[in-house]
Amino acid sequence: MRKAFYNPARKLSAALVIVLFSVTGMAGSAYARSAPDSFADMAERLLPAVVNISTSQLVADRQGPDFQFPPGSPFEDLFRDFMERNGQGKDGDKAPHQHRATALGSGFIISPDGYIVTNNHVIDGADEISVTLHDNETLPAKLIGRDPKTDVALLKVEPKKDLPFVKWGDSDKARVGDWAMAIGNPFGLGGTVTAGIISARNRDINQGPYDDFIQTDAAINRGNSGGPLFNMDGDVIGINSAIYSPSGGSVGIGFAIPSAIAESVVDQIKEYGRPRRGWLGVHIQTVTDDIADSVGLDEAYGAMVADVTKDGPAAKAGIKQGDIILKFDGKKVESMRRLPRIVAETKIGKAVDVELWRDGKKKDVTVDLGELKEDTSADNTTKDKPEQQQTKPSGETTIDALGLKVANIDDELRQRFNLTDDTEGVIVTDVDTASYSAEKGVRPGDIILEASHQSVKDVAEVEKAVKAAQDDGKRTILMLIETSAGPRYFGLTLDKKDK
To answer: Catalysed reaction(s) (predicted)?
Structure first.
């Protein structure tokens, strides 16, 4: 079975399509609620605040078949007339055509004056957006702003009278097993109610940097995207956004953007026309068990700083490459992917207390948080590092404990691995395919920059660091290695793997 995330708001043109749907959420309580006798009263109250969204845009295409009859064919004149009538030039030259493509989705009203929330992918690329209310009145909608990173968009209509609306709930209180109800516009049918439970929390489906989806088994299908997921108090705890399905239809695995993320994004779009997020200025990576062991951390948690942006908030606060961020603004960083969301949701300009792990002990620093700009990104320029074998470089040394061959960088190696003149460090020239280093992702052409938090400039310093770690009885050694994707820390096992 293949996994597919389908997009109900886009035209279906292939076997796999991207669909976004909703997840269920509920207000938590000390004890589980009993199953409701009926969802009818709640559905009747909430249906008027859920809308159908239709979009259209001009799409370029080409008319006519991609073939020609040969010169002299009895069908040549007929073929030419057909092409010209369909907007193509003589001799079958293809002229561009445009047609208006339409798509359907869902949304919900959050204020009586006509603010409507939906998914970004529902309205992405549209030049016309219209909203159909529960009483079948259709109004043109204006796009106030959108956020592709969380897949949230805010629209505005101008109603003649106050509209029914729904309130945000607290998705953080939603518990696995709570009942939830989704309302939306599946397949353009409008006003459809489905119910289920919250199946899981904190799902990462690789849709964006702030993934933290609620999973639900309430039926979600194409067209449900942008619709609300309600708890049993009738409050919105999620925006239906995506489904897991091999066919495009509901199989009981849907995902919703939690209100804890969506509400703040919507408020910022409403105030500024765009989301405003905190910025720390670090590139981070997962703290693996091997990395935790190599730095003396009892538990593998937090986010390891692989690189620090020059003159960014982290650099100004003294955060260094190799630090592990354990807490941010009083919140424990359970995993690497948790930190970007915590930072993004923190008030810009706030003086934030950060707890680090450095040199085998905890350290506290204070960071004045900056604002994330759209062009603020890592320098992820990749280097072309061909792995073809050539003559053995002078000074090449085998480090059996790591399953690596390393060498000092010389002109021959700069040319072979396409290195710049200012590249420093120790280059990996070969990796034993049966070694733990190969398993962790170390490749020929990678540059060893640090060993046990000490800069290394030649092979002898790498060998010295490895021996010192072995003499200290360590099972792993921490190394900072420049890979094709940028600098990254590796906790390398000091044992040759059995073949």
So the answer is: Acts on substrates that are at least partially unfolded. The cleavage site P1 residue is normally between a pair of hydrophobic residues, such as Val-|-Val
Task: Answer yes or no: 151 catalytic.
Answer: yes
> What Rg value do the Cα atoms of the chain yield, rounded?
28
Between CA 251 and CA 218 the distance in angstroms is 9
Residue with tokens 């630090």: 323
Report d(CA 286, CA 343) in Å as an integer: 16
* Same domain? 228 vs 300: no
Quote the tokens at residue 380.
């992820």
**Residue the block writes with tokens 């072309």:** 384
> Cα 354 to chain center, whole Å?
24
CATH number, domain with residue 162: 2.40.10.120
Which among 336, 371, 406 is the end of a domain? Answer: 371
- Give the Cα separation of 174 and 28 in Å (integer): 5
Q: Is 225 annotated as a binding residue?
A: yes
Residue 312 and residue 170 share a domain: no
Q: Say how many domains are in the chain.
A: 3
Please indicate, yes or no, whether residues 102 and 234 belong to a single structural domain of this protein: yes
* Identity of residue 330: G
Looking at residue 144, its pLDDT comes to 96
225 is an active site residue? yes
Mean pLDDT split into 10-residue runs, the chain, 499 residues? 42 36 37 74 95 82 50 53 55 57 88 96 91 94 94 95 96 94 90 94 81 91 92 95 78 91 94 92 92 92 93 94 95 90 91 95 95 56 34 69 91 84 88 89 92 89 91 90 88 72
Cα 496 from Cα 491, distance rounded (Å): 14
Are 210 and 135 in a shared domain? yes
Residues 240, 317 share a domain: no
Q: Burial, 133: exposed, middle or buried (Cβ in 10 Å; 0-12, 13-18, 19+)?
A: buried
Q: Catalytic site residue 91?
A: no
Residue 461 lies in a domain: yes
Range of the domain at 403: 397-493
User: What number of residues does the chain have?
Assistant: 499
Determine if residue 245 is labeled as part of a ligand binding site. no
Is 151 part of any known ligand binding site? yes
Q: What is the pLDDT of residue 373?
A: 83
Q: Judge whether 89 is annotated as a binding position.
A: no
Q: Is there a contact between 241 and 225 (Cβ–Cβ < 8 Å)?
A: yes
Active-site option among 22, 54, 151, 199: 151
d(CA 241, CA 21): 3
The CATH number for 360's domain is 2.30.42.10
> What's the CA gap between 230 and 41, in Å, rounded?
13
Enter the tokens of residue 83.
């092409």
Catalytic residue among 106, 121, 212, 453: 121
The single residue of 54, 106, 225, 437 carrying the catalytic annotation is 225
Instruction: Say if residue 170 is in the same domain as residue 60.
Output: yes
Instruction: Give pLDDT, residue 386.
Output: 34
Is 224 a known ligand-binding residue? yes
**Does the residue 382 lie in any domain?**
no
- The per-residue pLDDT for 78 is 55
CA-to-CA distance for 176 and 164, rounded, in angstroms? 30
